[in-house]
Amino acid sequence: MGEREVRVKTCTACREVKPIIEFNRNKSRKDGRSSICKVCKRKTDAAYRAKNPNKNKEDYAKRIAENPNYWAEWYASNREDALARVSKWQKENPEKRREINKKFHEDNPGYGKEWERRNPDKVLAKRARAYAKKKNSPEWKVANTLKVGIYKSLKDQKAGRKWESLVGYTADELIAHLEKCFLPGMSWGNYGNDGWHIDHIIPRSVFNYQTPDDIDFQKCWALSNLRPLWAADNIRKGAKLDVPFQPSLAIPANDNTNPMMIGKT
């Protein structure tokens, strides 16, 4: 099969040969496209608007009065150009875009839910994109690692509480701590199976706890016991102890029956 032929056309303004899609649609022309390219058309229109500001407003009002569906029809005939213009404007005017969106939703409070009801496929696709983006963020990766690790170690003792409330620090604080401990070559881009892991300096297996209130739980998941470690080194280390460690009794840190606390109150 031969290469697909690309239709081209010469712009009568800049004299450049360009792909046919670089010319606006024009039903009055034999080939269905304008004689000048989109770039030259925008330049010509901008120059005209600068010289005739009032004329433009008058023409616009007259056009809409004669045909209220003008812009809908124009969009249908120039969809690619319209989307490109909108995208360019949104990137160049983020603050104004937010203001317009905010006012629109204030004036149309039920629009969001109605749109979601009418576009279930788009809603699912949007959520999938957001989830994929979130999964690649450091915050999600470390939060998920600790959440899963804590859930497995506590089993049914987590009682629906968020992992951050159990360990006493946030995902952002954990990220900052790990970044301070990065070894040369480490980054969030190589976090995972073949890169580096979040390692417990004193292995989880030697701690003695049953609930998040037990002394050893706090010691096990403290920032001071967490560090980034290359995957190969972490696997090699396993549950080995570098220094002697004495696990605590599985009792809450604030339990008055804790023999370690007797005489210290």
Lay out the secondary structure:
Elements: E1 8-10, E2 17-19, H1 38-51, H2 53-66, H3 70-77, H4 79-92, H5 94-107, H6 111-118, H7 120-135, H8 138-154, H9 163-167, H10 171-180, E3 196-200, H11 215-220, E4 226-230, H12 231-237
Antiparallel strand pairs: 1-2, 3-4
Q: What do you see in this structure?
A:
With 265 residues, the protein is mostly helical. Among the domains are: 7-77, no CATH class; 138-237, no CATH class. It is 50% helix and 6% strand. The chain has helices at 38-51, 53-66, 70-77, 79-92, 94-107, 111-118, 120-135, 138-154, 163-167, 171-180, 215-220, 231-237, and strands spanning 8-10, 17-19, 196-200, 226-230. The chain has a two-stranded antiparallel sheet. Helix 8 packs across helix 10 (171-180). The longest helix is centred in the middle third of the chain and has 17 residues, at 138-154. It is elongated and about 80 Å long. The relative contact order is 0.05. The model is unreliable at 256-265 (pLDDT under 50).
Any key phrases for this structure?
single chain; about 50% helix; about 260 residues; 12 helices; two-stranded antiparallel ribbon; 4 strands; mainly alpha
| Rounded Rg | 32 Å
For the biggest sheet, the summary is:
2 strands, antiparallel
H-E string: EEHHHHHHHHHHEHEH
Helix content: 40-55%
Termini, distance in Å?
Answer: 87 Å
Structural class, by secondary structure, is mainly alpha
Taking strands numbered 1, 2, ... along the chain, how are they ordered across the largest sheet? 1-2
Overall outline: elongated
Tell me the fraction of residues in β-strands, as a range: 5-15%
DSSP E strands, number: 4
- What is the overall number of helices? 12
Ranges with pLDDT <50 over ≥5 residues?
A: 256-265
Average of per-residue pLDDT values: 84
